[in-house]
């Protein structure tokens, strides 16, 4: 089984998951089980895609799925921010992390394309 816990992309995503879990638990009830749950599920799916990509021979499909999920996560975060569920300082921190994840995934994609 391939190791994935040491990957910087995994660490960044895991840290983001923990931060988002703390934030979404404080969403008002009307948003906790709609937008909050979508954020949580999406970030967990990001971790699963990282695991799959690291374990697979053909990584491209999983890295592309990971990049798509980052875009969805950014959308959900923007909605939460626009609804005033996330303060601007937390939102900007989350977007920095999702940008970092996307950059790392793109770098990973480029590295496998050159092989």
From TrEMBL:
Sections of the chain in a coiled coil: none
Pfam families: bAvd
Ranges annotated as spanning the membrane: none
InterPro entries, per database record: 23S_rRNA_IVS_sf, bAvd
bAvd-like domain sequence ranges: 10-111
Protein name (Swiss-Prot/TrEMBL): Four helix bundle protein
Organism, as annotated: Candidatus Scatousia excrementigallinarum
